[in-house]
Amino acid sequence: LLLGCELTASTKSYTFQVDEEDNFDHILALSMVCLTDGAKDECNVVEVVGRNHENQEIAVPVANLRLSCQPLLSLDNFKLQPPVTFRLAAGSGPVHLAGWHRIMHREGTSFEEDDDFSEEDEEDEEDLPPIMPAKK
């Protein structure tokens, strides 16, 4: 599925969300970020806002566009896992983002199988030698 959104001075963010309860894996691949008609010659910084492994919000700049020197940036299908927010952190745009939303059927395993697998992992971990500090 194609995805597109535009960030402007009046609409500074766009959040891409999916139903987390469905039985599918979702991947968002961002392919291009570009300034569109009406953009001023100013720095337009686009950030991706998501969550890290500790569920803390993090913002990472992915593009710094300027009409006179870099009006377009190819992101080569930069893969993100929803939910994700795109934010215009600087500038007034308009900045257009384009990409793909890929939906894949999740390989189904029951919770019972997952629990059994976890117990096996714990048993295997007990057999491993302890981690030693690095030598200086």
The biggest sheet amounts to: 4 strands, antiparallel
What percent of residues are in strands?
Answer: over 45%
What letter string, H or E per element, gives the SSE order?
Answer: EEEEEEEEH
Spans with pLDDT under 50 lasting ≥5 residues? 109-125
What is the top-level CATH class? Mainly Beta
Helix content: 10-25%
Q: Could you write a compact summary of the structure shown?
A:
This protein is mostly beta strands and 136 residues long. It has one helix and eight strands, in the order ββββββββα. It has one domain: Jelly Rolls (Sandwich).
Explain how this protein is built.
This protein has one helix at residues 111-127; strands at residues 2-7, 13-16, 24-35, 44-51, 57-65, 72-80, 84-90, 95-105. The strands form 2 sheets. A 4-stranded antiparallel sheet has the order 1-8-3-6, with no helix packed on it. The chain has a 4-stranded antiparallel sheet with strand order 2-7-4-5, with no helix packed on it. The model is unreliable at 109-125 (pLDDT under 50). It has 136 residues and is mainly β. It has one domain (2-102): Sandwich (Jelly Rolls), CATH 2.60.120. It is globular and about 65 Å long. It has 1 helix and 8 strands. Helix content is 12%, strand content 49%. Belongs to the nucleoplasmin family. One of its GO terms (cellular component) is nucleolus. Residues 108-136 are annotated as: Disordered.
